[in-house]
Specification:
This is Tripartite tricarboxylate transporter substrate binding protein. Belongs to the UPF0065 (bug) family. Keywords: Signal. The protein is about 45% helix and about 20% strand. By secondary structure, it is an alpha/beta fold. It folds into two domains: about 160 residues, Bordetella uptake gene, domain 1 (D-Maltodextrin-Binding Protein, domain 2); about 110 residues, Periplasmic binding protein-like II (D-Maltodextrin-Binding Protein, domain 2, 3-Layer(aba) Sandwich). The strands form two sheets. A six-stranded mixed beta sheet has the order 2-1-3-10-4-11, sandwiched between helices.
């Protein structure tokens, strides 16, 4: 009994010492640069979100926030890299619909669970997507695309550079009851480039890049993915208006770290994120890219991610996309 009691006392002492050491390390956080992983290529909308956010958070944290692009497999490679990282607050990831929600249903063997293998820090931003097409496409409305697809089954091609864009395209095709051939790309910018070149017919893209190319006459626009017109581009109709009534999907972004982030570190990151998102400079930078700031506490964002996993599972099932 005495030996057991002594062993218990020693274990408790070691545990207390470890907690104290962790607390001491957290109290000095951060004391070196922080790595913010973008699991998509440079120029993607996730990259745009991260670079502006990293700069704003660095000002508050007093340490550089280094953005690292680690693309591949629809964002899985970079996100999994962070899920396996040491939970010390020095490796973070900017997640979105693809990497933190729809991927759970799109992939049979997703190597991480966004609800359990990552620590939610907070929401960051949201934006509609813009459906654009090659200039050679017929008509200017979604209803024209549906009519063309009905007359030419399987002829339309659709480029996507993320899981969310894949689902957006599948949902639109299901609404129009047409067959569209999906064509995967490494990222959204590459998909848009091939639409401009006429290699593929259609893609959902971020507003900033899509509008820039549309106003240069390089692509046709068919509408934004939200029920209301976007305030910064009120001349662009919604898909609801041009022939897809009820279409309502939004792209969102958030910040996460590996599971098990210490409480003080999470609090520090959450505080820094809130300060960054309250900055007028960041809000204006995001607005120019078609993004609006989205603020949630770690607990709220965690609950939001879980609800989005269920929401996108239902959409994937509805559209009949087979898991990869």
């Amino acid at each position: 009994m005495k030996r057991s009691a002594a062993a218990l006392k020693l274990a408790l002492g070691l545990g207390a010492a470890l907690l104290a050491a962790a607390g001491a390390r957290a109290a000095g956080y951060p004391d070196r640069p922080i790595r913010m992983v973008v699991p998509f290529p440079p120029g993607s909308i996730t990259d745009v979100v991260a670079r502006s956010l990293g700069k704003a958070m660095a000002d508050g944290l007093g340490q550089p926030v280094v953005v690292e692009n680690k693309p591949g497999a629809n964002g899985i490679i970079g996100t999994h890299d962070v899920a396996r990282a040491k939970p010390d607050g020095y490796t973070l990831v900017v997640v979105g619909v693809s990497t933190a929600a729809s991927g759970v249903s799109l992939f049979k063997d997703l190597p991480y669970n966004p609800a359990t293998d990552l620590t939610p820090i907070g929401a960051v931003a949201e934006t509609p997507y813009l459906l654009v097409g090659s200039p050679r496409m017929p008509g200017d409305r979604v209803s024209d695309l549906f009519a063309y697809g009905a007359r030419h089954p399987g002829k339309l091609t659709y480029a996507y550079g993320s899981g969310s864009a894949q689902v957006f395209g599948a949902k639109l095709a299901a609404m129009g009851k047409i067959n569209v051939t999906p064509v995967p790309y490494r990222g959204g910018p590459q998909a848009l480039t091939d639409v401009i070149g006429g290699t593929v017919d259609l893609t959902f893209t971020d507003l900033a890049n899509g509008l820039q190319q549309a106003r240069a006459g390089k692509v046709k626009t068919y509408g934004v993915s939200t029920p209301e017109r976007f305030a910064l581009a009120p001349d662009i109709p919604t898909l609801n208006e041009t022939g897809a009534p009820g279409f309502d999907l939004t792209v969102w972004f958030g910040l996460m770290g590996p599971a098990g982030l210490p409480g003080p570190v999470l609090d520090r990151l959450s505080q820094s994120l809130d300060q960054a998102l309250a900055s007028d400079e960041l809000k204006q930078t995001y607005a120019r890219q078609g993004l609006s700031v989205k603020v949630q506490t770690p607990a709220e964002f965690g609950g939001f991610v879980r609800s989005e996993i269920d929401k996108w599972a239902a959409i994937v099932k509805e559209t009949g996309i087979p898991p990869q």
